[in-house]
Design brief:
It is built from three helices and six strands; from the N terminus they run αββαββββα. The chain is of the alpha+beta class. Strand 3 and strand 4 form a beta hairpin. Helix 1 packs antiparallel against helix 2.
Length: about 140
């Protein structure tokens, strides 16, 4: 069952899970998770012909080490209904410094409570750097 939470509770749960960076709501309105969503909703209230969308698109970086290093980006599809929010789906993608996709993971049928932590989401698309050392000595026998 999807959990419908008000904005404060929705943002608090995701922030507690490590999603504490900056996000864009609907491709604009940059800020922390709660600030970005509330700024989007406020801009819709100010415009006469703008109604908030039923599904909001939140994008942000979970891992950023500079423009010359690979990064991990998260895209969340959030359902907005009568002032309540729920998380429907999430896409986590790791891209190289040129924007080429290295690895992607799509998570569906999520709720805010069942969503992975930010560290777990990064781990889904991280490259494994574990190299097993060869334990046998390679020597020539005479």
């Amino acid at each position: 069952m999807e959990a419908l939470l008000d904005l404060d509770a929705f943002a608090r749960v995701l922030t507690d899970k490590g999603y504490s960076g900056y996000f864009h709501t609907q491709g604009a309105h940059a800020g922390k998770l709660r600030d970005s969503i509330s700024e989007y909703l406020e801009s819709c209230r100010k415009e006469a012909d703008c109604l908030p969308k039923e599904h909001l698109l939140l994008t942000g970086y979970l891992q950023w080490s500079g423009a010359d290093k690979p990064s991990v980006r998260c895209i969340m599809l959030v359902k907005y209904l009568n002032g309540k929010f729920s998380l429907n789906a999430m896409e986590v993608a790791r891209k190289d410094q040129f924007g080429q996709l290295l690895k992607k993971s799509e998570l569906t049928n999520l709720s805010v409570l069942s969503a992975p932590s930010a560290a777990q989401a990064v781990a889904l698309v991280s490259e494994e750097h574990e190299q097993k050392a060869d334990r046998s000595a390679k020597r020539f026998k005479l």
